[in-house]
Protein: sn-glycerol-3-phosphate transport system permease protein UgpA
Amino acid sequence: MTPRVVFPNKILPYLLLAPQLAITLIFFYWPASQALYQSMLREDPFGLKTQFVWFANFRKVLADPNYVNSLYVTVVFSVATTVVAMAVALLLAVMADKVVRGRGIYRTLLIWPYAVAPAIAGMLWLFLFNPSIGSLSYALRAMGIAWDPLLNGNQAMVLVVAAAAWKQISYNFLFFVAGLQAIPRTLIEAAAIDGAGETKRFWTIVFPLLAPTTFFLLVINTTYAFFDTFGIIHAVTGGGPGKATETLVYKVYNDGFVNLILGDSAAQSVILMAIVIALTAVQFRYVEKKVHYG
Structure:
């Protein structure tokens, strides 16, 4: 029987946990509780009159066609951003893993974009594809493409997805490279000796062994698309044109900080938090079952 390990100091473990617990309480549980409380209030923008309305704000939000539109936009944007960011990062990681000379230089150059702030990344893509002064927009028009994301909602969605995915590719690339390095080369060499081609080796050996990394990045990228892309959308399209790129998190900002509809904004933030928690729970409950931890 394995002897039980007893930590000699009774107070030190709690002292070591105290900073993290304090940060979690102050920056997550306290704001979340305040949002839940404010979501049941109806108050004027100046805070002079407050009325407790229970779940009336939630009923109003869920019946709003603009909120349903934001939910649809968020689903499209999140799925597209996650798929593009992970697929391109995996492709770049596989290509960089084959490089023998200058491997460190390639990896460093591919990781650098992650250091760019979301708002700066959005402005870069806006300048490149601006219909009036963008250098790449001239190339698109030269190819016969009527490019104007300021008026075309579908083109605006393509632009913000591209900017958000570009910002996240470096993060995904870093983890995919680490996952590829952890795969034993003997397995790939044995498959090559057996006559398996490069594509077959990737889908039957490499990709299944990357399942834990892929699942981790799926959760991270989903959360990123829901929350961390606010700066990109704000810089590139501002939720337009015609609310074509107004995601849930941007609608929370637009209703709460721009239009000062505080109760509805708080209710939307609570619903968004519940959606992300439920989505993460579903991923861990069902998707993780298909993940093989070798």
In short: The chain has a mean pLDDT of 85. Residues 65-98 form the longest helix (34 residues). The chain has one domain: 58-291. The first strand starts at residue 41 and ends at 43.
